[in-house]
Amino acid sequence: MAEALDAVLGLCADGELPPGIALAQLCLAATDEQGARHALAHALADAAPAPRRRLAAVYALWNATPAAFAVTRAVASTSAEVDTERTPATWARAFDAAAAISPEAAVALYSLGRPDLLASATAEIVDDLRARGVLGADRRVVDVGCGIGRILAALAPRVKEAVGIEVSAVMIAEARKRCAGLENITLAPGSGSDLAPCSSAAYELVLFVDSFPYVVASGPALVVANLREAHRVLRPRSRLLIYNYSYRGSDDDDRHDVSRLAGELGFHVLENGRRGLRRWDGAVFDLMRTG
Ligand SMILES: C[S@@+](CC[C@H](N)C(=O)[O-])C[C@H]1O[C@@H](n2cnc3c(N)ncnc32)[C@H](O)[C@@H]1O
């Protein structure tokens, strides 16, 4: 446990973890809240000036978010229970429970349940999409595993239309609230293995934001099924963007699998797992449907 805490604090001190991610990981690695606070205070006292500034940002964030420990642990415990049968249905139940605790933390633990932190991370993802040239008034988007609809709501003024597909009923209900009144946004329950609500060759962008890890965790057949479906609904030379491929802990394994699957299923890899975001440590896989 102490090793896990030291590892998180070391990465944070080195500037490799944004404060929200560091705090969420610290809360998960500790036995109790007092132990986490003690470890952070200890690291701060020992740190050189630059690492100290980074650790102090985590300290300040925690002081501004007193419920961080309780929210992070409660939400994470809903997924921790899915350790035997990993299927879209069991993930749906876990995310139903997580969203009932905190919709914001359920889609992004590092938001610590705070709408303002989530909004700032969402804005960075939208900026990243804009920089990749995949948004525009003529673009139709599928957001797979759309959760509470935060990306859809942010994309609404920037695209022609967007469809959110989601396996969790509580998430879809939250998304309906957030996207109420946005006429170019539709929401559809999904099976987790297909994009049945979407027509073939009708979209310019398919997005998975932190949802693909649950596909990977459900097994290779589901991975192939989802990628085949993304290929089916995309127009030729259109894009598939996956923010985080898995939570297996090896970027190299993820890059290897993505390049192999892309070759087999008709995609060209434009970017293979780069971690360039500042408010979130997501790895970006940018693929183009060939032909
Ligand atoms: C961490 S949340 C991210 C939600 C959203 N993409 C966001 O970034 O705000 C992961 C979401 O993926 C959904 N999910 C998991 N497996 C899925 C699957 N096979 N198909 C569609 N959605 C899935 C979960 O229900 C959950 O809402």
Word description of this protein:
The chain is of the alpha/beta class and 291 residues long. The protein folds into two domains: 2-64, no CATH class; 116-289, Rossmann fold. 53% of the residues lie in helices and 18% in strands. The protein is built from 13 helices and seven strands. The chain has helices spanning 2-13, 19-29, 33-46, 49-64, 68-80, 88-101, 103-107, 115-131, 150-155, 169-178, 212-217, 220-233, 251-265, and strands at residues 136-144, 159-166, 185-189, 203-209, 234-243, 267-274, 284-289. It has a seven-stranded mixed beta sheet. The longest helix is centred in the middle third of the chain and has 17 residues, at 115-131. Bound molecules: S-adenosylmethionine. The site of S-adenosylmethionine has 23 residues, from helix 6, helix 9, strand 2 and helix 11. Keywords: Methyltransferase, Transferase.
Topology:
Layout: H1 2-13, H2 19-29, H3 33-46, H4 49-64, H5 68-80, H6 88-101, H7 103-107, H8 115-131, E1 136-144, H9 150-155, E2 159-166, H10 169-178, E3 185-189, E4 203-209, H11 212-217, H12 220-233, E5 234-243, H13 251-265, E6 267-274, E7 284-289
Parallel strand pairs: 1-2, 1-4, 2-3, 4-5
Antiparallel strand pairs: 5-7, 6-7
Helix pairs in contact: 1-2, 1-3, 2-4, 2-5, 3-4, 5-6, 6-10
